[in-house]
Amino acid sequence: MNKFAVLGSTALVSLVLSACGGSESGNDNETPPSTDPVSGTFIDAAVEGLFYKAAPSGLSGYTNAEGTFEVKPDDVVSFYLGGENGMFIGNSSYRSVVSPFEVTADTGSAMNLARILQSLDDASTGSIVIPEDIAKPAADSNTLIALKQVKLNNLDSADALLEEVSASEWVSEQEAAAHLSESLDGIERGDSDVIDAFSKGSGEYLRLSEVVMTGQYGDNSTVFQNVHMDRTIPDEAFKNASFGISSEVLYLAEDSLVLKAGSSDQRYSSQWAKEFIACELNGGEFTVNNNTPECFNADSNTYSAEDFAIEPGFQLVVKDPSQVNSDDETIDYAEVANFGGLFACMNEQDCSQANLSTLGESEFEDDGELKQQTYSTSYDTATGIYTDQTIEVTLDSTGNQLRESTSTSYSYLVNPNVDNGERYIDFRGTWLAETNIAGCSLTGQVNYQFGESEIHVVGKELHTQQGGECTLEDMDETVSYAELANMAFWWFGVNEGQQTKATLAQLNSSVRWCDDDEIIEGQLCQSPKIEQWTYVAAGKNWDQGVLTSSAFVQGQKSFITTFRKTN
To answer: Where is the signal peptide (predicted)?
Structure first.
């Protein structure tokens, strides 16, 4: 992939105003921000009967017939189906229009929410009215139990709810997508105030990170889930391999967009990724010649690619740290404007929340290939995050499909002289983790108390027994950040000087980690696990969002855990 092609395939792009830190005038006569309630609307057609709760204002209630809710401008709003104790949908900073895309971390979850909502009422009437027994189910009712089990990144977790609503199947994804697109068409999803920081010539720095979530090749029907970090491999390869998250810094100069030195998006996946890791461990130099991977000057042949085989349906993605741009590169604004979205309005100097929040399609050529994209974008004024979720199909010159991918990208304004030109989510504080598994009515609840140097974990942990029985067991442990870093919380081990923090891209990645009872140095892992993470930032410090972890056993989702910061 061209190192700048990521700009054309942005799937979730996040732009953060607060990263720059605005100046303060010190004028005592300035009018303070309004604290009067403001109205927002939840749209998948207007949805009546969703419960919402806002913090810090404490305002709460149910959306009305127009889908309207009332909160304060600085609030983070939590949405639920079935009341506060029902199905948790997600959090969003206040915005005038909220759709499934703003409260979920990926296109799949957004579509699952749309399918559920549209199955509860005839959405073709222009509104969705949630039935009373779903909107306000009785305590301890089967309906409430079914609602609490639903995790939007796994529609199978809603099987019990499907029975409760007496439906044979959910509205199809195609129908849901078409209806949602029609509902949002023509609606201004935000204000039209120009965001000067995103205009060409602003002199700002922009961090852009991309996480490619899935890959499909040729006419092969297998859709591979990408794994971006592997903690099962020996430390020397872990330290040398920059795993599959691309990140680059852009400078919005007067005459051109500058791609700063240090950028790289040279990634290897599937067999090539395994070959790359083996070559690194054997002390060799990895390269690809004529579409064939080769390892030169290896010190040994201790490891082979098959030592790093991964479960069916998954593939490793690594980034080659030797393929780094050593010099700044300038790109004409008119050229990047062809990528649309942020880069189009950057060139026109008219970026606003309204024109950065859209659904659409685009088509362009890149290195002799035709790329067709379907995307959803939105911009959050509270976090400064611009979100663009994209499905990209690449065709050759004769129209044959070469590959298809879904991607998630993040862009945000940064100060290149602070925190290595990066923004972080700080975990310090208490996070409530709630765990469910399909077919089990119990919910594990564990508090993670993140301190300066260690984490106290206390609560009721969900376990499964042979035969499928699930139980809750007391948990009370203290662990170090290094211990968590060797497990699914891999980001605690890679951000220099930021022990308690993670980047937005890291919280939207997948990791393979070792669950052996005893890890022996130099021995490959015997019991690897795969865990997928998703996160939607909310609040001015980005830490009021919902972090979701999906654990996979034999290629199938098992435990699903949501983390929310409580203080």
So the answer is: 1-19
CA-closest candidate to residue 535, choices 557, 558, 506:
506
Residue type (1 letter), 522 = G
* 438/458 Cα distance (integer angstroms): 23
Look at residues 241, 225, 63, 98 and name the one whose alpha carbon lies nearest to residue 154.
225
User: What's the CA gap between 98 and 79, in Å, rounded?
Assistant: 10
Give the DSSP H/E element, type plus range, for residue 412.
strand 401-414
Span 16-25, mean pLDDT?
Answer: 34
* Contact call for residues 236 and 303 (beta carbons, < 8 A): no
Q: Could you report how far apart the first and last alpha carbons of the chain are, in Å?
A: 42
With 0-12 CB in 10 A as exposed, 13-18 as middle and 19+ as buried, what is 142? Answer: middle
* Rounded average pLDDT over 316-335: 88
Contacts of 204 (CB under 8 A, 6+ apart): 20, 197, 198, 251, 252, 413
Q: Single out the residue of 108, 90, 80, 76 nearest to residue 12, CA to CA.
A: 108
Per-residue pLDDT for 190 more than 50? yes
The position carrying tokens 């019990």 is 160
pLDDT tens column, 541-563: 999 999 999 998 777 778 899 99
The whole-number average pLDDT for the span 316-338 is 88
Of 437, 435, 552, 434, which Cα lies nearest the Cα of 159? 437
Residue 168 pLDDT exceeds 80 = yes
What phi and psi values does residue 259 have, to the nearest 5 degrees?
-85, 115
Nearest to 42 by CA among 106, 116, 107, 117: 117
pLDDT tens digits, one per residue of 196-207: 999 999 999 999
b/e string for 362-397 if b means 16 or more Cβ within 10 A?
A: beeebeebebebbbbbbbbbbbbbbbbbbbbbbbee
Q: Residues 81-138: pLDDT tens digits?
A: 999 999 999 999 999 999 998 898 888 899 999 999 999 987 677 889 999 999 999 9
Considering only 63-67, 114-118, 268-272, 459-463, which range has the smallest mean pLDDT?
Answer: 268-272
* % of residues, the chain, pLDDT over 70: 90
What angle do helix axes 173-184 and 107-119 make, rounded to 10 degrees? Answer: 90
Q: Own/partner pairs for 55-64, CB < 8 Å, 24+ apart?
A: 55/544, 60/84, 62/135
Query: Mean pLDDT lowest for which of 3-12, 133-142, 369-378, 523-532?
Result: 3-12
Q: Note whether 337 and 257 are within 8 A (CB).
A: no
What is the C-alpha separation between 305 and 284, in angstroms, rounded?
13
CA distance 336 to 342: 10
Q: Are 317 and 333 in contact (CB under 8 A)?
A: no
pLDDT at 531: 94
The answer to whether 515 and 528 have CB atoms below 8 angstroms apart is: yes
CA atoms within 13 A on the CB side of 521: 2
Whole-number Å distance between alpha carbons of 19 and 198 = 13
